[in-house]
Write a structure and sequence with these properties.
The chain has one domain. It has no helices and 9 strands. The chain has a 7-stranded antiparallel sheet, with no helix packed on it. The chain has a two-stranded antiparallel ribbon with strand order 7-8. Strand 4 and strand 5 form a beta hairpin. It is elongated, with a radius of gyration of 22 Å. The mean pLDDT is 89.
């Protein structure tokens, strides 16, 4: 019972499904692509349903034994939010170059390259709406030098 109302029947359904494909080429280029959907439905005297989607696309470039680059991208779409705040895009870059075999390595990494400031999600049931909000680190790049003795 909620707010002194009569008992009522509540039916809830949540289903996850998705796919992913990964290459295994011997050459320079490989990829990893996939998507996941989450369908939610709540039925009481009314029906509320929505689908959240997460997709990703990753690229790997092995130019040589000394130089490689990885790009990782993700897209989130929340079906229960308004049009302005329902999708988020993320991109990361990592590059690595070996200057001296087994001794000196340079790396460059960049995170949150689209500079997304907040990440919000809502959870909806028959009696509640919950909001979760994360503040994210701003876009940044990191240059790293690694030396092994």
């Amino acid at each position: 019972m909620v707010n002194n109302t009569n008992l009522r029947e509540v039916k809830s359904l949540s289903t996850d499904y998705g796919f992913e494909v990964r290459s295994g080429f011997r050459g320079i280029f490989n990829y990893h692509i996939g998507s996941k959907w989450n369908y939610n439905q709540v039925k009481t005297t009314i029906e509320n349903s929505f689908t959240d989607k997460m997709s990703f696309l990753d690229f790997s470039f092995m130019f040589s034994d000394k130089f490689n680059v990885q790009l990782k991208s993700e897209r989130y779409f929340f079906g229960n939010l308004d049009r302005e705040n329902n999708q988020y895009h993320f991109l990361e870059l990592k590059a690595r170059y070996v200057l001296t075999n087994n001794k000196l390595t340079l790396s460059l990494s960049g995170n949150n390259l689209f500079n997304t400031e907040t990440f919000r999600n809502y959870s909806i049931s028959d009696i509640t709406i919950s909001k979760i909000e994360y503040r994210l680190q701003p876009r940044y790049a990191l240059l790293k030098m690694e030396y092994r003795f």
